[in-house]
Amino acid sequence: MGKKIKVGVISDTHSLLRPQALAALQGVDHIIHAGDIGSLEILEALRLIAPVTAVRGNTDHGAWARHLPETATLELGPAWFYVLHDLADLNLDPHAAGFAVVISGHTHQPKTELRGGVLFFNPGSAGPRRFHYPIALGHISVQGKSVSGKILVLDN
Question: What is this structure's pTM?
Answer without folding.
Answer: 0.96
